[in-house]
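Ticket #4471: structure output looks truncated?

Reporter: J.K.
Steps to reproduce: submitted the chain below (470 residues) through the standard prediction queue, then opened the result file.
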Amino acid sequence: MQADASTWFDKWRIGDARRKGLWRRINEPQLFVFSFLLLIATGTLGLKLLPRLYTGAPLGWLDSIFTITSAVCVTGLTVVDTATYFTFWGQAWILLYIQLGGLGIIAFTSVIIVALGKRLSLRQEGLSASAAEIAPHVSRKNLIRDVILFTFGIELLGATALWIVWTPEMGWRSAAWPAIFHSISAFCNAGFSTWSDSLMGHRGSPATLGIVMGLIMLGGIGFLTLEELALWGHARRRRRFFRISIHSRLVLATTAILIVAGWGFFSLFEWHRTLADMTLIDKLVNALFMSVTPRTAGFNTVDYGATTDSTNFLTILLMFIGGSPGSTAGGIKTTALALIALLGWSRLRGRTLTDVWGRSIPDETIQRAVGLTVMAFIVVTIGIFILTASELRGQGAGGFMHCMFEVTSAFNTVGLSMDLTPHLSDIGRWTAISLMFLGRVGPLTFAAALARERSGSEGFRFAYEDVVVG
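Returned output as attached by the reporter:
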């Protein structure tokens, strides 16, 4: 009996060692992708199997996968009306996966890695893959803790503010759930709403739009930048010097330029069209909201099917850029845009190095930004080809601009639509699902792969041969 027990223990120990060895061979990008797939799978099963989620007939498998993928990838595209199709419990289920997709995949994956004794890294989000190089004064342990504190703290403040603003109109009980839902959805840049018209019913409420814009910007600015701003504020209170990193300065500067420029152009394009019936203050606030929300938030206060082509194309450009690294936002990211612009400016001045604010940017980082942008452009282009081929054959599917808008919104996890999403064919829905997933994990995974150290077998190169360019 004792021998049998010993044999069983030895087998279990050998099996456990093999399992640990297999787990350690899973690198961080693979763990990142697997985490998303696991969330989508469990969320889809919940939509299919859990009771009391629907006001009517439950969703089919394809639409369930689409809805949960949109929630986990914090996109906001929907094939059914979230406000009327789902009960409170159905909306809560979707909100849970918005929260897990927006926050948990960053923080919880890090906790898993630490618990397993692996090297702490968040390369999969670009959050602190090179935090020691980008901001050596930021503690990695503190960063993980503050990711959680920032998220729940900001969401709580946002929900409280929205509840206060909506209580006089809706009553304190009725305002509670929409306030919580929209606060989490806005901070996670998800764009899901408990109202059928998104925020069009609040286009005349500057307070509501101001709070939502604040949540969107805080969620899309990146946790590393938020951490640095917190440290900067703490240093100022103690009258100590604190230098904000080039990364965070680029994030803040690029974000400000994009918001102000978009605000001006949207005001110009829509002043006498979709904004024509508003007061001066409401026009300015709604134009500003139109500049903020395409940066992967997905809420709307105007009908994008009624806006000008100039507005829609500018929205597409802003969706493609997205938010900042290490945030809940998608897109190629503000830093990639800034680095490509700085690269162009350096070349125009005949300089081989790219520099900003007295610092030179490593060539590897510049190449990564260019590579990610090119890959994103290729994926979006392929998506447009597929969607135009599958959707433009049908009646009432919209035109080329509708397909381009939809693909860019899906891949960059925005959630805005020109009312094409509910009318997508099965091919179109699978295309959107793939784009949402690739947009959330693809570029990030490639960035992590590019950041890994080279093995000894790569210590050679082929002979140089030049190519004519231009």
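Triage note (M.O.): checked the attachment and the full token line is present. DSSP finds 17 helices and two strands in the chain.
Status: closed, working as intended.
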